[in-house]
């Protein structure tokens, strides 16, 4: 908790560390009611930081100092200064050794940062600044050291003792305890340190690297989950191979371990050689995990593995550079997933997510650049902007340079900076040096926040046979940034003739045509591109594959969008045309609803979807994506002022119309998919995943008919599905239906069957929390008392409270403010337990400016109430103060 106002830390104040740590020797004595940590730090003056011997200031929080030596001489109380965050002392030589012993309390650590207990096991989470809760240290990423770690614990309770690197020694003691020593030969910052002690089982495999070394692979888990690890192991081996093939990156230690833990603040953590995962991102079995969960496991395993190079071998100089490792690694894992599954579907999912959530963040009070200028609490900056927008920035570099030059640039980056802690500028420099391109203006993507708007006009001159596209870019003001300079915006595009054929593209001044799809680099506030020898008035296909994270505006008519849906050669843009058509139609319904008029749906949306459903050549996953209407959250993001009730009514009205008009087609498609499911054994492969996604969206429409025949197929699927993807989808549809008896029955059966599986129960909570039927808040409040719920487990908090506040707009935004009051109460409770989780759950309340006057007042009042509620963590304080500013 905060004893004074948290300080703002600025990038411009960065200074190299005064001292360096060459070696770190740690010994942990783990006991049930405390842990002793002995640290020996072999240190020296940093020659790059100036002359003389300034005081040594070590970070340390919540540590009970028991003993302190400088070069083997014990220090007395007068020889050092101790505050609640630092230990300072005066070295007398340029090289010295510090020995310290501290007592800490992992058994009562509910913040899940530093060393803590998850169930019966000890584990750590040190990123970003958790290591200072383990021992006194220079806890900053530009201080890199080799680590030797010894753990000792009761052998029966903690038979497995793990840390980074390779095991080098172990032994037993007579009192029932045992110990193990691990050594990590690679220099690393403290945030990559990890240890695990517990009663764990593992599965083992091995991987032969490109250069012929055999790496042992182990995934550890509590014994009851041993049967759910194969998918993660397969994903790991695919990741290792992909990184060799696509980036030329080989693994470097002899052993790679993953440990699954139940209590974890984020998805997973890339600790060197010892990744620690939220169990939700490792465990996968067809009976208990959906297709989406399987894909998430594959992506997160890859993400953490890829960090071994993009993050560990080359790390960040300071936390302002966080996107250096996160944006790059998200880009890498997205490309991996695209290669393993459907590229177009992966892109659609990522773009839908980015536009709904990152665009909202970039338009809210916490908006910040991909490389922020300042922060109060770094944990608050593990954001969609750093991760998702950061990945888009990397994708744009890839698009502008081309795959080959990008690879040269990444090779140069890894070679030049191996073993170093560097900046985003260093990364861009390597890309420039390898490609010969100047990225000076491009770097504004790192420094300017906000989502650019790109308006496009066109003009066809039939006489001259020229076609001109004029782009106008602008970017709204964001906190601390009134004015923006123009970005470099890569616009991938093509031109279609009236038959949907692609026209060859040649810009004025060019000697020859350059294919039918190309990238225009928009660099000015207003800029025109003229194509020559254009035989007919074309229809432009713009921002193909979503080539830049901008809001594109071109005045497409609905017929033109239907045309693009059918003919665009770019699969992403076919989907995008359908989304834009749906947005236009839904926005018209919202306006009708607001004016109190009867709702009238533009039949072209139905006809477009009829064509999609009837097209047997289309990938089933694409059919499913195209049948999915834009989410309420996305429609809210697009509105100046979000009318949650009108949006919900409009969207449900459209869904019911689609269900009614296309019932027969949906029914036929559903039956065929379900029949295939019944007759083929489950596999989490792309073709089956596509089929199940189509089947499940079809089922959700069929149930809107509220007929007995629809209910029968839904119950059949729920009862007889041999996999969680179908079972959970049927449950979700039942929960949102008016069939109260069947719903209650299904929920009870499901809970009875899966009561001992925490991750499945999370799904059970989430499905109910997201149910938009009236009474949502009361249902959630009742579930808070369910035996399987606890505020101490972040997955449970996200499943119930998070799903309610983020996915259940009509209930959360109840006009009496009860939803807001509920969330504020939970944030106050969480603040005392787990500040990182508290501050994340606060996000929906920070978006108060999006809503009507009544709701704004209610939301602000809850933010004020939290602010006045007492001792606040720095995490929660930062978000509150910025949201109320
Ligand atoms: N570096 C982790 C990743 O792969 C992020 C992370 C895991 C994290 N646990 C954390 C960040 C706890 C802050 C706090 O993206
Ligand atoms: Zn990461």
Automatic annotation (TrEMBL):
Residues 450-554 form the Peptidase M1 alanyl aminopeptidase Ig-like fold domain. The keyword ATP-binding does not apply. GO terms for biological process: proteolysis. CDD domains: M1_APN. It catalyses: Release of an N-terminal amino acid, Xaa-|-Yaa- from a peptide, amide or arylamide. Xaa is preferably Ala, but may be most amino acids including Pro (slow action). When a terminal hydrophobic residue is followed by a prolyl residue, the two may be released as an intact Xaa-Pro dipeptide. Keywords: Aminopeptidase, Hydrolase, Metal-binding, Metalloprotease, Protease, Zinc. Residues 559-885 form the Peptidase M1 alanyl aminopeptidase C-terminal domain. The keyword Iron-sulfur does not apply. InterPro entries: Aminopeptidase_N-like_N (IPR045357), Aminopeptidase_N-like_N_sf (IPR042097), PepN_Ig-like_sf (IPR038438), Peptidase_M1 (IPR001930), Peptidase_M1_dom (IPR014782), Peptidase_M1_pepN (IPR012779), Peptidase_M1_pepN_C (IPR024601), Peptidase_M1_pepN_C_sf (IPR037144). Its cofactor is Zn(2+). Residues 232-445 form the Peptidase M1 membrane alanine aminopeptidase domain. Its EC number is 3.4.11.2. One of its GO terms (molecular function) is alanyl aminopeptidase activity. Residues 103-192 form the Aminopeptidase N-like N-terminal domain. Aminopeptidase N is involved in the degradation of intracellular peptides generated by protein breakdown during normal growth as well as in response to nutrient starvation. Belongs to the peptidase M1 family. PANTHER family: PUROMYCIN-SENSITIVE AMINOPEPTIDASE (PTHR46322:SF1). This is Aminopeptidase N. It comes from Geopseudomonas guangdongensis.
């Amino acid at each position: 908790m905060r004893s004074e106002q948290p300080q703002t830390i600025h990038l411009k104040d960065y200074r190299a560390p005064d001292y360096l740590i060459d070696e770190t020797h740690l010994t942990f004595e783990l006991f049930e009611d405390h842990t002793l940590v002995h640290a020996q730090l072999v240190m020296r003056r940093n020659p790059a930081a100036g002359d003389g011997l300034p005081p040594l200031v070590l970070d340390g929080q919540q540590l009970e100092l028991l003993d302190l030596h400088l070069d083997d001489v014990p220090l007395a109380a007068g020889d050092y200064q101790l505050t609640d965050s630092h230990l300072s002392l005066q070295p007398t030589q340029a090289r010295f050794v510090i020995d310290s012993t501290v007592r800490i309390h992992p058994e009562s650590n509910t913040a899940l940062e530093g060393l803590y207990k998850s169930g019966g096991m000890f584990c750590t989470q040190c990123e970003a600044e958790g290591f200072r809760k383990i021992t006194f240290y220079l806890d900053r990423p530009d201080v890199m050291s080799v680590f030797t770690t010894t753990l000792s614990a009761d052998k029966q309770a903690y038979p497995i003792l793990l840390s980074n690197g390779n095991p080098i020694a172990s032994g037993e003691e007579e009192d029932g305890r045992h110990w193990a020593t691990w050594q990590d030969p690679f220099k690393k910052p403290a945030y990559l340190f990890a240890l695990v002690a517990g009663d764990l089982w593992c599965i083992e495999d091995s991987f032969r690297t490109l250069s012929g070394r055999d790496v042992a692979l182990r995934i550890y888990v509590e014994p009851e989950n041993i049967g759910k690890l194969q998918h993660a192991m397969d994903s790991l081996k695919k990741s290792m191979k992909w990184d060799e093939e696509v980036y030329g990156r080989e693994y470097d230690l002899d052993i790679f371990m993953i440990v699954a833990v139940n209590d974890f603040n984020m998805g997973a953590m890339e600790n060197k050689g010892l990744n620690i995962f939220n169990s939700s991102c490792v465990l996968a079995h067809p009976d208990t995990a959906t297709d989406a969960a399987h894909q998430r496991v594959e992506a997160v395993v890859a993400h953490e593995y890829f960090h071994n190079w993009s993050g560990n071998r080359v790390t960040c100089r300071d936390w302002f550079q966080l996107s250096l490792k996160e944006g790059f690694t998200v880009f890498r894992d997205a490309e991996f997933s695209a290669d393993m599954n459907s590229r177009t579907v992966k892109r659609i999912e990522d773009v839908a997510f980015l536009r709904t959530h990152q665009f909202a963040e970039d338009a809210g009070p916490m908006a910040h650049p991909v490389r922020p200028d300042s922060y109060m609490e770094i944990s608050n900056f593990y954001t969609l902007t750093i991760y998702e927008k950061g990945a888009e920035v990397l994708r744009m570099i890839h698009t502008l340079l081309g795959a080959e030059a990008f690879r040269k640039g990444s090779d140069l980056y890894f070679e030049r900076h191996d073993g170093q802690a560097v900046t985003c500028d260093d990364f861009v420099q390597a890309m420039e040096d390898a490609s010969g391109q100047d990225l000076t203006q491009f770097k504004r993507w790192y420094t300017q926040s906000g989502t650019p708007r790109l308006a496009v006009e066109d003009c066809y001159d039939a006489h001259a046979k020229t076609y001109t596209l004029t782009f106008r870019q602008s970017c709204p003001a964001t906190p601390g940034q009134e004015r923006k300079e123009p970005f470099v915006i890569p616009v991938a595009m093509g031109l279609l003739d009236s038959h949907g054929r692609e026209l060859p593209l040649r810009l004025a001044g060019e000697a020859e045509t350059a294919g039918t799809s190309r990238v225009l680099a928009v660099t000015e506030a207003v800029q025109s591109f003229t194509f020559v020898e254009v035989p007919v008035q074309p229809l432009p296909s713009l921002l193909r594959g979503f080539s830049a994270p901008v809001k594109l505006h071109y005045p497409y008519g609905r017929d033109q969008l239907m045309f693009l849906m059918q003919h665009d050669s770019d699969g992403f843009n076919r989907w995008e045309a359908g989304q834009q058509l749906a947005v236009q139609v839904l926005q018209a319904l919202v306006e009708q609803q607001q004016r109190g008029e009867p709702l009238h749906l533009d039949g072209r949306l139905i006809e477009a979807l009829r064509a999609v459903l009837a097209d047997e050549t289309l990938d089933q996953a694409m059919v499913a994506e195209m049948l999915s209407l834009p989410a309420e959250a996305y429609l809210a993001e697009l509105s100046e002022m979000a009318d949650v009730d009108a949006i919900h009514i409009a969207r449900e009205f459209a869904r019911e119309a689609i269900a009614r008009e296309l019932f027969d087609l949906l029914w036929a498609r559903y039956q065929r998919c379900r029949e295939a499911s019944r007759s083929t054994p489950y596999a989490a492969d792309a073709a089956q995943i596509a089929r199940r996604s189509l089947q499940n969206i079809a089922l959700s429409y069929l149930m809107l008919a509220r007929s007995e025949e629809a209910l029968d197929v839904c119950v059949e699927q729920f009862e007889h599905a041999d996999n969680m993807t179908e079972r959970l989808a049927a449950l979700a549809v039942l929960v949102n239906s008016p069939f109260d008896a069947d719903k209650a029955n299904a929920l009870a059966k499901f809970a009875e069957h899966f009561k001992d599986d925490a991750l499945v129960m999370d799904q059970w909570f989430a499905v109910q929390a997201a149910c938009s039927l009236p009474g949502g808040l009361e249902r959630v409040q009742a579930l808070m008392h369910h035996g399987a719920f606890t505020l101490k487990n972040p997955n449970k908090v996200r499943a119930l409270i998070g799903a309610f506040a983020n996915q259940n707009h009509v209930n959360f935004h109840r006009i009496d403010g009860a939803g807001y009051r509920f969330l504020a109460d939970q944030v106050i409770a969480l603040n005392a337990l787990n500040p990182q989780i508290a501050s994340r759950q606060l996000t929906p309340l920070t978006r108060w400016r999006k809503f009507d006057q009544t709701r704004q007042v209610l939301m602000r009042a809850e933010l004020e109430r939290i602010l006045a509620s007492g001792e606040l963590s720095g995490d929660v304080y930062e978000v509150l103060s910025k949201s109320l500013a």
